[in-house]
Design a protein that fits this description.
6-stranded mixed beta sheet, 4-stranded antiparallel beta sheet, 2 domains, alpha/beta, Aminopeptidase, single chain, Alpha-Beta Plaits
């Protein structure tokens, strides 16, 4: 039987950087699971170059458990690796390679455990949910989640295997990012009513967003478990204009919001659209061709602690971890939860190793994950 390390070596060898296709990896995994008797569903990207895979082992009944992981990885461009990032290298009890920690390690464990799941007398099924494009905004999972929610057998809870060192994480912030393009009309800077300065209106919209950031900070409860304890809204990039004495024809900026579970992220998004429309109407008094375009680049909901929901209860029973814990990074967990699935985050590896040159996962972490899956098999067979 192939070990988790064997599988991880093969998975790492597929360069599934988000800009690339993941179909070769999906082909391999789907063929393997199908041979074990899994019912497999492939959910392709709109352009057909990538795919999610949902596979089910066990009886065709509701109430199963989802093991979730994303197949894409971040680029290695510009990073100083001491080994080939797409060749798994073992050194001092650690396995180095791109995606070894984030998050092909948990997929490797799930695949290594699959033959045992297939042979066991499971009373509830195990679901494998492997997605694409998580690293660029959790873009792939929603179509798969909709398919899972609308078809039998319906699972009852989800374990997203992002790296937590096998600790149970019950909450995280969301992610809402936009690129705003402002198009005005050029004119001499002394003739402000002969044009519409895109930079000026971009600044006004950014000032409005700073006010919303202050409101997010004020809304944080005193017992917030997050660091920082409030939802955040930042403007990380901006540009525009050609000269100081010309009303700018164009301007742009990129903003990123990380709403806490208690924040109304969708509501803030709607208010942003309304404010952009209001400013656009004002610009058109001077330049009918003026416009403000808001492109939503990512919209990932936060994961809300469920107060001992089914996923949390299961994961704590399997790990023995009873400590409250949230993380600052986002995952597909909020998307599963929004679709009605009880969800937690729990997987091998440390997030501090993710996205780094010489990314690694400790072999001891894979061993701990395999023990977790052994106990899960016992639970699903009881």
């Amino acid at each position: 039987m192939r070990t988790a390390t064997d599988w991880l070596a093969e998975l790492v060898s597929f360069d599934t950087t988000s800009r690339n296709s993941n179909l070769a990896l999906i082909d391999r995994v789907e063929s393997y699971l199908a041979e074990l008797g899994a019912e497999c569903h492939r959910i392709e990207s709109p352009d057909g170059t990538k795919a999610n895979l949902h596979a089910v082992l066990g009886p065709h009944v509701d109430g199963g458990v989802v093991l979730s992981g994303h197949t894409d990885v971040v680029p290695v461009d510009g990073q100083d690796w001491s080994t080939d990032p797409f060749t798994l290298t073992e050194r001092d009890g650690k396995l180095y390679g791109r995606g070894s920690c984030d998050m092909k390690g948990v997929i490797a464990c799930a695949l290594a455990k699959a033959p045992s799941f297939a042979k066991a007398a499971l009373k509830r099924p195990v679901h494998f949910a492997f997605s694409y494009d998580e690293e660029i905004g959790c873009l792939g999972a929603p179509d798969m989640i909709r398919q899972m929610a609308g078809h039998a057998p319906r699972p009852s809870c989800v374990i997203v295997g992002e790296p937590t060192e096998m600790a149970v994480v019950t909450g995280h912030k969301g992610l809402f990012s936009v690129r705003v393009e402002v198009t005005g009309k050029e004119a001499h800077s002394s003739l402000v009513e002969d044009g519409a300065c895109a930079v000026t209106y971009a600044v006004r919209l950014m000032n409005w967003m700073v006010e919303q950031s202050d409101a997010l900070k004020a809304a944080a409860p005193a017992d917030s478990p997050f660091n920082p304890p409030y939802g955040t809204l930042t403007i990380g990039q901006m540009g525009g204009g050609t000269a100081a004495n010309i009303l700018a024809k164009s301007a742009w900026f990129i903003s990123l919001m990380r709403p806490a579970p208690w924040d109304d992220g969708p509501g803030l998004g709607r208010r942003l659209m309304a404010e952009a429309a209001r400013l656009e109407a004002e610009m058109r008094q001077y330049a009918p061709e003026a416009r403000i375009e808001v492109e939503v680049r990512s919209n990932v909901p936060p994961l809300r602690p469920e107060d001992m929901g089914e996923a949390e209860t299961l994961a704590r029973a399997l790990t023995g971890d009873n400590s409250p814990r949230v993380v600052a990074y986002g995952t597909e967990g909020g998307q599963f939860q929004e679709a009605g699935f009880s969800t937690v985050i729990c997987g091998p590896g440390s997030i501090t190793q993710a996205h780094q040159p010489d990314e690694f996962v400790a072999i001891s972490e894979l061993d701990a994950c395999m023990r977790f899956l052994d106990k899960l098999e016992q639970r699903l067979s009881a």
